[in-house]
């Protein structure tokens, strides 16, 4: 069903919040609590205890752009050992393009005893679609790695990058 929606929406060349929500509902196992872009933005604005942001995408995706201050945690090679310096109770927000890969990393963290793990609902695509900034090594950027032409249909704002 999700594949059919992806193909139909790609053919139309546009998406809607309702379609995106439906797609995410089909992908998520609901094994990790979610945090919305608005909720995360509000937390980051407080300047109080900041969550550890874990970008669980591929190196090329992270290089193009990521949330400010995010730590890279390659989905393909991630081990809990990479976050052994993080207290088990510290807030952690995991994200990827749409939230599927990050949910899997969140599951690993929860299984390892991390108690305050959340998955960014809709991933970096939703973050950018809601008008929030992303960064690279040079500072703020409008570029976002769109993963693939099929998945890029969900990225409505920013400059789509597929290979770097």
From TrEMBL:
Residue ranges annotated for the Rhodanese domain, each copy included: 47-136
InterPro entries: GlpE_sulfurtransferase, Rhodanese-like_dom, Rhodanese-like_dom_sf
Pfam families: Rhodanese
Entry coiled-coil feature ranges: none
Protein name as catalogued: Rhodanese-like domain-containing protein
Stretch forming the signal peptide: none
Xref: SMART domains: RHOD
CDD domains for the chain: RHOD
NCBIfam families, per database record: rhoda_near_glyco
Highest taxon listed in the record's lineage: Bacteria
Gene3D superfamilies, A to Z: Rhodanese-like domain
């Amino acid at each position: 069903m999700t594949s059919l929606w992806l193909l139909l929406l790609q053919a139309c060349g546009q998406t809607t919040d309702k379609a995106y929500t439906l797609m995410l509902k089909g992908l998520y196992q609901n094994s990790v609590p979610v945090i919305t872009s608005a909720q995360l933005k509000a937390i980051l604005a407080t300047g109080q205890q900041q969550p550890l942001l874990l970008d669980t995408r591929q190196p090329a995706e992270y290089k193009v752009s990521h949330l400010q201050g995010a730590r890279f945690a390659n989905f393909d090679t991630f081990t809990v050992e990479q976050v052994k310096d993080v207290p088990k109770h510290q807030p952690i927000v995991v994200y990827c393009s749409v939230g599927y890969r990050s949910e899997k990393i969140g599951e690993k963290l929860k299984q390892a005893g991390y108690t305050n793990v959340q998955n960014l609902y809709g991933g970096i695509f939703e973050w950018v679609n809601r008008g929030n900034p992303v960064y690279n090594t040079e500072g703020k950027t409008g570029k976002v790695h769109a993963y693939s032409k099929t998945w890029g249909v969900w990225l409505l704002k920013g400059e789509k990058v597929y290979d770097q």
